[in-house]
Design goal:
about 270 residues; elongated
Amino acid sequence: MTTTAVPRAGALLRTWRERRGWSQLALAGAAGISARHLSFVETGRSRPSRRTVLTLSEQLEIPLRERNAILMAAGLAPAYPEHGLGDLPMAAVSDAITRILTLHNPFPALVVDRHWTMIDANDAVLGLVEGCAPELLEPPVNVLRLTLHPGGLAPRIADSGQWRAHLLARLQHQIGATGDPELKRLFDELTGYPCDDPVPADVPHALVVPFRLRTERGELSFLSTTTLFGTPLDVTVSELAIEAFYPADAATSEALVRGSHLDPSSYVKVPR
């Protein structure tokens, strides 16, 4: 195991260093080790200690899941647990998610994992996805696929080309940061979807890109925010993101509040 695991661990660290654009000298200095030792680790001539792997991972901002993979490749135990949202240690996190989604009604909010799979959503989200192809709503629901697929929200998105470009740029940035092959496959799939609304060459200056959706209540305009859990020490928690949508104008706010007949104590439970 020593002859195969150590080189693989070093190769993984080297890949992350190159992905982040660090030189060996700069990374070694930031991590408090010698460049010679880092070189030996990357080539497999030296076995990295647990502390070395974690220090380098912190400097390189490597996702927790991948930090565990590097540790295991070096013959070391994982440093970060991974629990399901239904597990007892996750009760506080699960409760926080439920509260956030519930209190955000009648405005849409949902929770996604690292692959944009919908983990949970509030009732207001249901009003937006009515009329989408049933197969796109079957769990596991991929939010980006549901948004950009011709059978999903895409035909009802005003300025769909601009919103599509925004989502694809965000996904591409995520791929660059994580190197996740599943995200790359998702990107290739999404870019293959037809889009008859090209991105305008002269996009007006704006603070944010609005999400504008044509509905039976008229055109609704939203501003979106992404919320992450601070200083996560669990793999699952580190990969969760809450996507919340706020009215971008008074008409949208009034339409959602007026059309809401939701029980404020209810929320959607997406099968896990």
